[in-house]
Amino acid sequence: MTRENAITRIEEYFDTDGYFADLSRRVAIATESQEPSRRPELVRYLDDEMAGSLERLGFTSQTFDNPLRSDGQPFLVARRHEGDDKLTVFSYGHGDVVRGYDDQWDDGLSPWTLEKRGERWYGRGTADNKGQHTINLAALETVLAERGELGFNVVFLVETGEETGSPGLREFCAANQDLLAADVLLASDGPRLAPDQPTLFMGTRGALNFDLSLELRDGGHHSGNWGGLLANPGTILAHALASITTVSGEILVPELRPDGIPDSVRTAIQGLTIEAGPDGPRIDPEWGEPGFTAAEKVYGWNTFEVLAFTTGNPEKPANAVPPEARAHCQIRFVVPSDPDAMLAGLRRHLDEAGFGMIEVSQSHSAMMATRLDPDHPWARWAADSIEQTAGRPPAVLPNLGGSLPNDVFADLLGLPTLWVPHSYSGCSQHAPNEHLLDWIARDALRIMTGLFWDLGEVRSAH
Predict the structure, then answer these.
(1) Does residue 9 sit in the same domain as residue 121?
(2) Considering only Cβ atoms within 10 Å of each terminal Cβ, which end of the chain, N or C, has fewer?
(3) Are β-strands 324-333 and 206-215 bridged in parallel, bridged antiparallel, or unpaired?
(4) Which residue range forms the structural domain that includes residue 37?
(5) What are phi and psi of 448, to 5 degrees?
(6) Quick check: is 280 in a domain?
(7) Residue 23, CA atoms < 13 Å, CB-side half-sphere
(8) Could you report the per-residue pLDDT of 153-208, keeping only the tens digit for each?
(9) pTM flag (> 0.85)
(10) Are strands 184-187 and 417-419 parallel, antiparallel or unpaired?
């Protein structure tokens, strides 16, 4: 009954295709939350696959309706209680995936069939998020088998709407705080800093999506007869967008910029190298905030992106001055940036720059930024555990560059949040040919088994 034996067990689980079998069942359930017709699959994933797997570990579970979505996207809460005097760990996963894009995968691949090709395992959800919470559940089961108990209590929440912005998650958690009460969150999502670099992040950047739109008239008008006489909304909106950043992406609107990078954050990310892997894009070193490292730009700063820009009919251009233009934009932001203040600042900027005719409208609720100090005792504890298992220290990020509903757990439930990602940035997440790397999965199984083993020896909350 030792830590080493537990890690040997999890290695055998992987090497004998136990992990492949578990993940295959879960990938085969087409839980596309963006497709209303898939609601039965979301329910099946929770009631059949998750509840059954957790029951085998001594959990009791219950499925709850989504308070905001009458058409589905339910939640499952599973609990294993070993003692009132023991630590309670909160974990999280999302069973939904983005659309499969079935006809866009390489020949012989299907989003709903897990397939090995070399070191890559293809299937929708392998990276986001079925592959990741399958690793964590397997690690829990392994510790339980080796020790006979976990040594701590667990609350496990699985949602099925993360890929549509986690509607109802905050409301559900607010209404069930007693059911979800815990001492610390330990969960997995997102990519490692580099494929071979174990990673620990303790928060996420927030995400604010909004539209800039300009409608000048009804219908287009012949560009030969009216060009030069009618204001072109596409041209005006392009100039408005160009006023928000420099040509190299440096943000010019003061309200969209954070006050600075705290010393503890700068120290934590100093020297970190961002690697996309062989299939990832090449970093443009001159893009973004001048004088910053790549890590500071992604983990310590705000970024403004134009995600889509349309005017006229791009698929079938007409010789006409278009009547309207629209840009869908996004700000990824760090603590303590405030979405309302940022939108108000953008409105002020556009008005002062002569673009008062452009409408600013928020697309949906912002995902708030969170950050746990790298010096927090829980962060130091997790980093030490990972290093003991992996034989090398993890990259420690105060917050991920992307966004998760971590504000619900950190701010509403009041939990210190520890995230250990098991994917990598070249995994084709949200695209055709999504995959995980088998050697990362094996490494992650070892790391999570070590973390859960060590949690069983923690006698009080840090």
Answers:
(1) yes
(2) N
(3) antiparallel
(4) 3-204+370-455
(5) -70, -35
(6) no
(7) 31
(8) 999 999 999 999 899 999 999 999 999 999 999 999 999 998 999 999 999 999 99
(9) yes
(10) parallel
